[in-house]
From TrEMBL:
The keyword Magnesium does not apply. InterPro entries: Vps26-related (IPR028934). This is Vacuolar protein sorting-associated protein 26. The keyword Phosphoprotein does not apply.
Amino acid sequence: MKILASYVSSKGDLASLDKSCVEEMPGFNMTLLADYQGYFGGVMIQQFQPLDRNLFGFGVPSVDLSFTLEGDEQRVKLKVPPFDDAKSGKPKELPLYRDDEDILGILTVKVDVGKRLKHTGLKLELLGLVEVPVDRNGGYEFTSSVRELQPSGEIIGGEHTFAFEFAKVDKPHESYYGKSVKLRYVLRATLARGNYASNLVQEQDLWVQRVAPPPPVDRSIKMEVGIEDCLHIEFEYDKSRYHLKEVVIGKIFFLLVRIKIKHMELAILRREGVGSGTQRHSESETVTKFEIMDGAPVKGESVPVRLYLAPYALTPTYRNVQSRFSVKYFLNLVLVDEEDRRYFKQQEVTLWRKNIG
């Protein structure tokens, strides 16, 4: 089938080409419309129009965004495992900040050499987020502070730097990367490129810690547990609130022993609770466990307990953070008999941070 292809040049001159087929012309496109001014061979032809090279991002110069934090070389870095799987992958090193510390630095924008970009706005945000992997809403935002670095319509080329400062921004919670929830603070730079090109986003995670005031004077914990006519024990811990570098001191008394105990273990459990109401679910993990007794005890025997908390990856206790999640810790005492039956008793303890680091 023969088609007369018509186009209008940039000067508006009409030209006609008789071709056996229509070949795409570089820089032009063709559309058939019913209301064009004329017919050519019974086929309605629309004028060729120059293509917008920015459509869907084609022809847009590449841009690189990067952060330089003030005092970064001297700042303590904490290694944080990847959120998706804490048992694999390389840990991230995040700069450590106090909750009352200002955040200063420089955002660098680099455009391809010899290129220029007209954007529709450059902004920088400091965000506090609670994120759950199964939540498709992108997380809950509990802190937000925005700096508009450049307005829409500006043209940038080469390398530009933008100094920023976030002073006295509320950081009410300590950072946390767990098995089913993450609380993170992040610097997020967004360059809106317009012309159907996607926004360019660069993030820098920060690790925030909060020092808590000492809790009120705490009493010791003393409880009696057992199995009627078989086992009766009493355990005692010196208190129920500990800072993260403290030592748990206690003692276990055997008041009645009529089953053959093989050994006794003490473990630290961490329990995450995520969601609320009927949507709430919990997940527990054993932070550490060790054997505190080997062999069968006798009536009247006592076993001392001394557990150093500093070597373990513990965090403060989180209670109903933004009505989204909680993190609790338990001391789990386990007795194992000769038939490998396990008898256990859990006691919740509250952990708090005394020092940064």
